[in-house]
């Protein structure tokens, strides 16, 4: 494929929408993106361990799941060289255009899909227009298909312009499980970035609105806790059990009761639980998945210490062992206002943009903040850009869809802002 | 197959051990038993709806599971006529020898296996002697293989003797889920039984010991409760959720705290729980499986009313709907001492029997009590006989095995007792 | 007493500090204030039901407590006419200066003390200077003594000036239990107020600072819930009990777990619990005192509906009856910025004022908001003024004290602001 | 007072009924009993530390309470020498008749009353007949007044007979709090007892029935647990609290959920709770009183280990310190059947006795078991005798009363049994 074969951005978004893959299983997606950035003509394309530090990954599914999607990607025509590089779930890539010694600018987009079943009826655009998900039960229901189209489109646009500096596009896997941001940082390509832009469509902002610098991310940590006790016959020897289901229930009650914090808003939720085998056996094992969020990183740490205490003592109270594993994590970082101003400037000159906001509350969690944090640690600055798009229903719901004109808006705004940073 | 082709009881037990089937999936087992009782030469053999009132079944697995085992039974050579009759899970049979107008005597044995993986090493007799389970993950780990051998053996023995009356052998399915006793009663063949014997091997009594009348069964009711609330984003809108996982935890805490009862021993256990999807979603749905037991039927009713109250209010407290389904049930019935005396008499004359106990505590639950209860309701009497057997590990554990000499002891004792009742 | 006998404001504060009285027991305090405002020469002085609608009171103590303080007030020399008027706890007064048809301006100060034992050592100013509390275990530990001094001082100051309009000073009882604001409104004297000033000293602001318009009050509702079950002997008949202590525990667990709200900050606390008589009796009765707070009135309503659900179902789960009583309440109301601007203007011209803030977060609850709410409902405007004072320890702690220079500052600032409103 | 002044047993019971005293406050009662046994003419009378090892006492009230009752006893005419000996709450006495080297026989009766308010109406015999409690809120509502009458009466009867041996009557304090049995043992006078009789009236057995040997006592341990956390303002700084009320609620939920035990019946109850000060303060301190009971001593130990674990981890979960104190305790001991046979023999010859039962279930707890246990440890034997009495309502309720004819029956039966042991 050459640059001339590159599909237009909307077509590209539709092709990516058709083959959604869950977090850490973006095997075909990575292969396809490698094709596309090669067609653009990048100078470097990092994949596998070169893009993702596998040891730092969170929320990686079981090997059987990884294998199933890896095999499916092969059937779907993914490239052998890419499949070899990303085997075991080191998906994602970093595409680089290098043009001299000028500033290093980054653009981060995310690439994974969700376990949502896409509707089949004609009211749903992708179904009506023939690009509904080919993978039953998996769907791009958050707009990452649009993000990838913006990423490739912006890269292609800038490849045709002159600048002095380096552009790195980070196609990050596993955002939905807050598991890909940290390993992408650990692979090292973020280290020398001077200005980083991250982009998300929608979030309730209509087509034509651009938020130049999102704020009020929530720091988050998601964990899986396993209580291991001892089973016993519930009729014949109830006293011999060490009851993991009771440890779990005590933990759930008390985790939700962790006190509010005056210094920042907080959230605690146990969202999944699974325990025991049958009604006549004292449950030997119970697993919960939980998360804490906070408006500041120190408050998250304080809440997490409370979580630790509840888990430890709920286990101890029922004679159970406890093991806890982090399955998703992202810090709180705000957008830099200077860089947001650059986006404002760029957005103002885009004709399809009707309203530009310097700042806007995000109110959720995102692991782009890992990249933003790393950039700040090295003296650079970052901003998280929201490109408004009319969406018929909320993110993560089956009827979610994007207004495709926002893809072009995103490309124009980001091209403008990145160009301004590359050629100040 | 004719009477001459009948395998001896121990060989029969081994062949049945090799093909264990879970509750309500005893398709091949039923077919095989039909073969055997036909070889004995019974006068009637009831299968399907004629043996089991399907509407009264409890603990029936999903259709997919039933279909899988039905298909497997066909592959294993089960008879088409039997497979047709028991399709959808009306397994089990009632075999009848009719010899005049004398008393009607019943013998009840159970036929289902357990979800236990059988060991492969040579220390485990069935593995060493080539009759380990052919079905991975399923095992006769409670002795029902021996029970069937005793049932067929006793039937064959009595078929060769003269008596005036009727012998009915009830090969009952789904005892392990306490789901087969009631539907077997509802099918009607228990109604005219004057004397009923039920039999179980082991329970800690060694080979050579016989307990003529077990007592202190626990009445039991097992239920599945489903809490349905409403999901919400745990970060963005926690207030919109109606949290099923919290309803579940509150229920678990309070069910285990249901007070003891001065009139009888009681048990309460929540043994299984499953709820929610992911840490960042307020859980919409939670399911628990629980049971209550009591030393008397009225106390069980009292405890179950407490269970109802806890479930209802745990749901209401968190704005959830509740649905509750009974998945297993058995009343408390004690053995009649007059009939137990008959067993004592018979056992005393069996040379391999070293110790005969008139009574013995059972201390667990059994749905043979449904049959015993029905017999009592119609003026008959029942006794639950325990035939001791040396077993290397507890019932329901992987290393459970029976001392095969107990199979012959069981046949001898029951033949003697039944003959005494048929020809008083 | 005539105007010439009026003590200076600091002396007045000390005399009031010496005789603190708890909420609804401010009998002597009301008598003393009537003396003082009569000395000033007010045109009207409303006491008893004329100042307080007794039916709307919250948090009223037992009759025995009221009687005890009423009697003590008589011993302390309180006036018979006043004692008659306020008998049964209709404490507080409204003092009115009427000078023509101009605007009606209100000033609200609170008058009750706290159940805190005042230190005796010389490090504590009131002890060192001879005006420590004469009532053991009761103390002006929140500055209401200073508020009264400011109220009387401002009234006296304005009585000497010319203006066209009406000044009403509301000496409100029972602020500490959030119980006096509503009944003062219901008595009717707030209805025609065009501009209302409320005042509080301290809150961490140092002497010399004035906050012209406090904001971010938390709406609050405090309740007492009583669970009534049935006692039973814990050894002999545990099943006969309807356990109020368990209902209470379930309520506590689940009240603290009421979910956060995305639209406003919230608080839930069960701060007091009392249940049962002895370890060997199933508890028949349990009482808890709890509160919910929220940053907006609608969110408080939403939280309170959750509270209702938890209480009702915790009771139902354990077969208990429930009764719930509101013991304290205050809405959220913010200061009007136009009126705050008037305070800014006045404060700026006071020489002892070093810093003036137009707005400031309050972050707690106050029932002055009832008066502010009523004024707004009638088309008027309000502002809540904080007069900074150096205080050695936090409000409600034993070592709390005010820097007395702030009393004069408060009088000057409020006199200025009120005069500006009366003579615009 | 001399032997001739001794009131008859029924009159004696009425006089004792009139002046009930709570556990460890039996100051007047002890004085009165000393008078009585001296009138009988005992050889030894041990009081104070000589009868009670004060260090081993449980459930002792606050010093203020002790002082109040001590003073009241003085006003009621108690003897100075006795009051001095029992000051601080070493109430009770051991009265001894020594007649040679024969066997040592003991009789144990208890002497304390209950915090129950006695009815005043004429339907209540003591009110109708002028011996209603003179101490408001305290009542002999369990029959200990009758026990003392039986104790004195039996002593007086035997003092008039000839025997070879020693009779010790143990007037034990503080049975209602299970606090006096152990210290009476520790004082040493039980050590040489060969045969011990304990006696209780009623328990649902009618007048005329005697149970010679009660069984199935429940071992018991009662404890007070205090959780100490840290208070915080519930609105302004909820995160700063270490919430003792939450620790308490978690403990209550989980204590009641301690699993049943297959080896013995068990009981767990939290019967009293008290925590916190006000709704707007995170509670700093919570106290609960709880008990565990079991049908055997080892099972009680097992349950108590569970209790320990729950308390410890409930505290830890909420960052609280925990302190636990035993406030009542009694082991399980059964009556010896040989000694019960002696009672049967004696009872059979009493004309007013209509039914004699060799054994009977007690089903509650009693600290006479401490004395029985000590006797057994030294090679002696014991039996706990129940003397039936018609009682209009249950023990510990306000309308409890005894049929006074049972007092004479008790004296006759015990005199007969003791004499048989003394002169075998």
UniProtKB/TrEMBL annotation, chains A, B, C, D:
InterPro entries named among the record's database cross-references: Amidohydrolase, Bact_exopeptidase_dim_dom, Peptidase_M20, Peptidase_M20/M20A_hydrolases, Peptidase_M20_dimer
Binding residues for Mn(2+): 142, 144, 176, 200, 396
The keyword Metal-binding belongs to this UniProt entry's keyword annotation: yes
GO biological process: folic acid catabolic process
Assigned keywords, A-Z: Hydrolase, Manganese, Metal-binding
Cofactor: Mn(2+)
One CC-aspect GO term: cytoplasm
GO molecular function, one term: metal ion binding
Source superkingdom: Archaea
Keyword field contains Metal-binding: yes
Record-linked SUPFAM superfamilies: Bacterial exopeptidase dimerisation domain, Zn-dependent exopeptidases
Residue ranges of every copy of the Peptidase M20 dimerisation domain listed in the record: 224-314
Cofactor binding note from Swiss-Prot or TrEMBL: The Mn(2+) ion enhances activity.
Family matches, as NCBIfam families: amidohydrolases (TIGR01891)
Identification of the protein by name: Amidohydrolase
């Amino acid at each position: 494929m050459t640059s001339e074969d590159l599909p237009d951005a909307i077509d590209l978004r539709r092709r990516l929408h058709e083959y959604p893959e869950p977090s850490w299983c973006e095997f075909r997606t990575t292969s396809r993106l490698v094709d596309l950035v090669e067609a653009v003509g990048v100078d470097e394309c990092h994949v596998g361990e070169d893009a993702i530090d596998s040891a730092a990954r969170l929320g990686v599914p079981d090997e059987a799941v990884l294998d199933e999607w890896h095999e499916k990607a092969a059937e779907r025509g993914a490239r052998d060289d890419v499949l070899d590089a990303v085997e075991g779930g080191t998906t994602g890539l970093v595409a680089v255009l290098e043009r001299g010694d000028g500033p290093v600018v980054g653009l981060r987009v995310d690439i994974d899909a969700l376990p949502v079943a896409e509707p089949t009826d004609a009211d749903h655009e992708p179904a009506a227009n023939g690009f509904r998900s080919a993978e039953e039960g998996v769907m791009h229901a958050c707009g990452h298909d649009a993000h990838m189209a913006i990423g490739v489109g912006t890269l292609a646009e800038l490849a045709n312009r002159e600048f002095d500096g380096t552009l790195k596009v980070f196609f990050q896997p596993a955002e939905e499980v807050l598991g890909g941001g940290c390993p992408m940082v650990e692979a090292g390509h973020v280290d020398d970035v001077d200005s980083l832009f991250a982009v998300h469509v929608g979030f309730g902002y209509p087509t034509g609105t651009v938020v130049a610098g999102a704020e009020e991310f929530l720091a988050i940590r998601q964990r899986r806790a396993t209580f291991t006790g001892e089973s016993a016959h519930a009729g014949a020897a109830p006293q011999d059990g060490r009851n993991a289901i009771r440890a779990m229930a005590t933990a759930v009650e008390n985790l939700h009761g962790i006190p509010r914090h005056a210094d920042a808003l907080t959230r605690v939720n146990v969202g999944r639980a699974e325990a025991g085998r049958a009604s006549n056996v004292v449950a030997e094992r119970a697993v919960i998945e939980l998360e804490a969020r906070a408006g500041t990183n120190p408050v998250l740490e304080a809440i997490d210490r409370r979580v630790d205490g509840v888990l430890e003592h709920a286990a101890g109270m029922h004679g159970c062992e406890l093991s806890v594993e982090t399955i998703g994590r992202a810090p709180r970082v705000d957008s830099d206002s200077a860089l947001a101003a650059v986006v404002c400037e760029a957005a103002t000159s885009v004709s399809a943009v009707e309203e530009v906001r310097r700042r806007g509350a995000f109110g959720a969690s995102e692991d782009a903040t890992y990249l933003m944090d790393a950039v700040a640690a090295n003296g650079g600055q970052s901003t998280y850009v929201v490109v408004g798009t009319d969406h018929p229903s909320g993110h993560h719901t089956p009827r979610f869809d994007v207004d495709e004109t926002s893809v072009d808006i995103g490309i124009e705004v980001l091209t403008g802002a990145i160009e301004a940073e590359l050629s100040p």
